[in-house]
Amino acid sequence: MLASPWRARRRGSCVEASRRAWSAGRSCARLAGVALALALAVSPGVAFAQAEALLDEGKSLMKKGKVAEACPKLEESYRLSPRSATLLALAMCHEKQGKVATAWAEYIDLGAAARKEGNKRLEADAKARGAKLELSLPRLTLSVPRAAAVEGLEVTLDGAPVDGALWGQARPIDHGQHKVSASAPGRKPWEHSVSIKRGERKTVALPALAKDASAAAQPAPAAEAPAPAASVAAASEKGSAAAGDGAAGPGKGAAGPGKGAAAPGKGAAGPGKGAAGPGKGAAGSEKGPAAAEAGKGAAGPGKAAAGPETDASPAAPPAAEEPEPSSGSSPRHTGSFVIEAGVAGGALIGLMDAGSFGDLSAYSYSYNIPEGELIAPCDDEVCHASFDPAIGPFAGGEAFIGFAISEDLHLGARVLGGYRFGGGYFVVGGPSVSMRLGRVWLGLSGLVGPVGQQANVTGIKGEIPSEVVHLNYGRSEVAVNAREGSLPESALVETLAFGGSVDVSLVLADLPSAGWTSGALLLSVSPTVMKGLDGWVFAAPASLGYRFY
Length: 549
Known about the structure:
With 549 residues, the chain is α+β, with helices and mostly antiparallel strands. It is built from 6 helices and 21 strands. It has helices at residues 3-63, 67-80, 84-97, 100-117, 120-134, 229-234, and strands at 139-143, 154-157, 160-161, 170-172, 176-183, 190-196, 201-205, 337-351, 354-355, 364-369, 372-377, 383-387, 390-406, 409-420, 424-437, 440-463, 477-479, 490-511, 519-525, 528-532, 535-548. Strands 8, 9, 12, 13, 14, 15, 16, 17, 18, 19, 20 and 21 form a 12-stranded antiparallel beta sheet that branches. It has a 4-stranded antiparallel beta sheet with strand order 3-2-5-6, with no helix packed on it. It has a 3-stranded mixed beta sheet with strand order 4-1-7, with no helix packed on it. The longest helix has 61 residues, at 3-63. It is elongated, with a radius of gyration of 42 Å.
């Protein structure tokens, strides 16, 4: 009973101290919250100010021609505050620096950003600048033949992985020196340097990677070999020498199946397995390639390091590297000759309502003259036959022979011809120009040549001299007196036609190589309109051809 007041006072003091501590904690929490809010509010403002300063400095350096110093500052400015104005300045800087592929990609991003902002003027400017650069983009194709496409193959360009879907495709790249690398599990890595110029196209073909058996030819000492350095970094949970098995215990090797470089509880160089188990990774991968493809250990007591039973196989000779294609063999290379050949087919429509089907001297016609009626003989000068329209399919071929003014502009001559089923033909040709826009070639051709069609004969008409037209009721021609059955049912009518065509070609397959087969497979349509001496000719040919660059 005497202790009760003291205990009450003690409890009261404890409660009071707790309240004071709680109150102090709340105050600290409030102060921390206010500091955090101020930091969050101030941080964007500071970043924006830094971005503005870097933007102004970059623009100033660019005006002085110091683009190598200006571009990094503009890049940092855009990282701190991504704005369209900064991206425009950065793209212009990279363009002046000669990095046309980088600038082209930035102009595309700028156009998309301007479209979202509703800035049509900036969007149009970005598109125009990007389209101008696209004509001079260097393009590099990484060709991976079937023999080189082993499992796990990784291809990198300047250290960046290249997705397998992009193998064999021409990709824009900045001009200059670039490094292509390839690696695969259990294979020797491969590297190749390639230099590409502005507007140039090149292809790098990867060789088949040689098998890597170098580790099998280097036996390690027996149990006295120290644990590999990787075991120190990889040891976990139980340390590099776990309890239960010593550093040279009877367990697994330094990299047993499914274990790390020094798996817990396993020895660094046990007698059971070697330094690298068969088909297992050297650093703990479950199915990774062995550093040495030999099945057993390098120095385990179970097998000799290089004994008669497990002699190390000699390393496979490295695959021959395919030489870099020369600039002269680059697809669509400027200054080279271009040849295209293909098969064509379509419809031929002849609207030649007048012509000759042979000797007309067997026919005569009559017309009025002042003295009476004159019976005049026919010939090709004063008489002509009339025909119905003729429509029918045709089959033939097409060809283009020209010169590459640039990689996207070809000048030359085009020839198109074929046989019309049911009777007829056409063989026309003339100057032609082709321009590439992405995967489409657009062209214009001027054409001239003979055209013939088998058509139904509807009659023969003779010409009346102009001085006696008034005596023949104003008619300038009159029907020829032909005996019934004397006219042929149909005849081949021919004419010389002049006109042109619009050529649209889709690239079905782009097949660049270092050999003479380098080129592209094209599917083309060429709507054609021509004016004959008597009537019109229309053709709608489609062709499948191969253009050799």
